[in-house]
Protein: Phosphohistidine phosphatase, SixA
Organism: Pseudoalteromonas lipolytica
Amino acid sequence: MKTILIMRHGEATPMQADDAARQLTPTGQQEASRMGKWLACHYKPDALLVSPYLRAQQTAENATHNIPLLYKETCRDITPDGVPQVATDYLETLIAMHPQCNTWLVVAHMPIVSYLVDQLSPGNMPIFNTGAVAVIEYDETKQRSHYLSIHSPNNVEI
């Protein structure tokens, strides 16, 4: 059994012409750091799949800076306009290719984070606050998932 953690980036600067270049606000940096401490205490991810957009990269960096990762990849399939089925298929392929990794952290954006949860566990499409993490159990032998919960920076205990 594997664990998939799907995380929305922290709070970002307002919309601008170059959406990919939006940065985290100080609040977004705090959200990512807080969730990183929570992840390190409760899940210890060993693999990371992150959107190329700056705010997602910054979130991943803040959330994993004290977590040793066995695998890390930037993935263009998990941008805001990514295709959820393609992203899910790719994630499942990576999980199969890296059996040493038991806990996968995916850092991306709305709406694709909600769609990813639904692709993995049909009928579950949570709305993510900034910095929130959805927890999914994934049985790689059956390629079946079970959505467990969602956690936000303002409701986790470290």
